[in-house]
Design brief:
Blueprint (H helix, E strand, L loop, with lengths): L1 H16 L15 E4 L4 E3 L8 E6 L6 H12 L1 H5 L3 E7 L3 H11 L5 E3 L4 H5 L12 E5 L5 E5 L7 H11 L8
Parallel strand pairs: 3-4, 4-5
Antiparallel strand pairs: 1-2, 1-5, 3-6, 6-7
Organism: Litorilituus sediminis
Keywords: Antioxidant, Disulfide bond, Oxidoreductase, Peroxidase, Redox-active center, Signal
Catalytic activity: a hydroperoxide + [thioredoxin]-dithiol = an alcohol + [thioredoxin]-disulfide + H2O
């Protein structure tokens, strides 16, 4: 009985972490207006015509995989900043949880909170456990989805984002 339950739970976990997003490359990315750990609000439409955006969804603050992913972006963020892009990590965690997480990981980029889960629903990343699946969206400065990456390696997240930006021919940063 315990074996069957364990197998069922494992299957549910595997299913829930695979985001079956209905959004596709070429779609206009859903707008968002989310508060960051800095207290500021960030709105996707503010970047339209100005800068590409990377939106990296993660399941839960202060968990092992998410901590590894965040530390990758902290330690290797210069690779991403070499491109003319704004990048964010986002979760459905409460703002206070994300603030604590940002402080613990020394995050030097905005970490967005979506406690209502409305933006996560719009991006089709909410899984069976009602947390975001680990999915990264690459959005052009015109607001179109350039790439949806559902195969995230937390330990190489920054390097992988930089490589994707290079492949997508995102312009180099001027500063």
């Amino acid at each position: 009985m315990l074996r069957k339950f364990t197998a069922l739970l494992t299957s549910l976990l595997l299913i829930s972490t695979a985001a079956a997003t209905e959004l596709k490359v070429g779609d206009i990315a859903p707008d968002f207006n989310l508060q960051a750990t800095t207290g500021e609000y960030f709105k996707l439409s503010d970047y339209r015509g100005k800068q590409a955006v990377v939106l990296a969804w993660y399941p839960m603050a202060n968990t092992r995989g998410c901590t590894i992913e965040c530390r990758s972006l902290v330690e290797k963020g210069h690779l991403i900043r070499a491109f003319d892009v704004s990048y964010f990590m986002a979760s459905v965690d409460a703002l206070d949880e994300n603030r604590d997480f940002a402080k613990k990981t020394d995050a030097d980029f905005p970490m967005l909170s979506d406690p209502t889960k409305e933006t996560a629903k719009a991006y089709d990343v909410l899984n069976l456990f009602r947390v975001a699946s680990r999915v990264t969206f690459y959005i052009s400065k015109e607001g179109k989805i350039l790439k949806i990456d559902e195969d995230i390696n937390p330990s190489t997240a920054a390097e992988d984002i930089a490589e994707s930006l290079k492949q997508l021919k995102i312009a180099a940063s001027n500063g």
